[in-house]
């Protein structure tokens, strides 16, 4: 009987050790921390949880979230199509909408446009999980904050800012430049408010493209690209034939024209004075004519008194 009791105690000890070793091997529930450029939109919807599932799913299983690695600021040129890109992961059966903050106007839902302004369109790229807001022919008034929203409970959104800019092209000293014969003409064209420098800046003289390899020689252009792009047109040993209209035409901005006057020993003030003198002579002539007519009329009335 003692042997039976010893065997039972031994078996119980072995079972306890075995049970303890098995409990150590069980994996504990853990959570997954997504990369920083992933934005978790919300926790589970109550309808998505089934008792024991709470605390077991990791954040990537909890519903849709935004990939915020892209810039939240978008700059577009007036008239050039703008895209606001919203990348949503784990969308499931939810819907992506775009809302304009200025007036809380609903623009798109899914792929459908929900505004009378048909310039706003939703573009879906399933390969990248992108839901982009496409804005056709944007104008400065379209600038502002737009929100990409997911139809979770409650809804969650990701805001982006659109800046619609109109490039400005100027020529320093315009619209008229006066240059002495034999000196160097330096036309400085400045282009501002472009998201990136214009690929090409074209210079023309009297509507004809300038040939920098022409026999005339001494004509060159220097362009410095950056946030503000500057193009310098240099014409050495200016001649009277170099006078005329010069136009700076950036490929992604509006052109600007300046009138160049190459003077042969004549000062600009003399030209302006001559123009003023001609205007004054014309005005004086008109005044004399009016006075003469008035005088003739009065004389006629005195010679032919009215009959009563």
From TrEMBL:
It comes from the Eukaryota. InterPro entries: Ig-like_dom, Ig-like_dom_sf, Ig-like_fold, Ig_sub, Ig_sub2, Ig_V-set, Zig-8. PROSITE patterns: IG_LIKE. It holds the Pfam family V-set. Residues 64-163, 167-259 form the Ig-like domain. This is Ig-like domain-containing protein. It comes from Aedes albopictus.
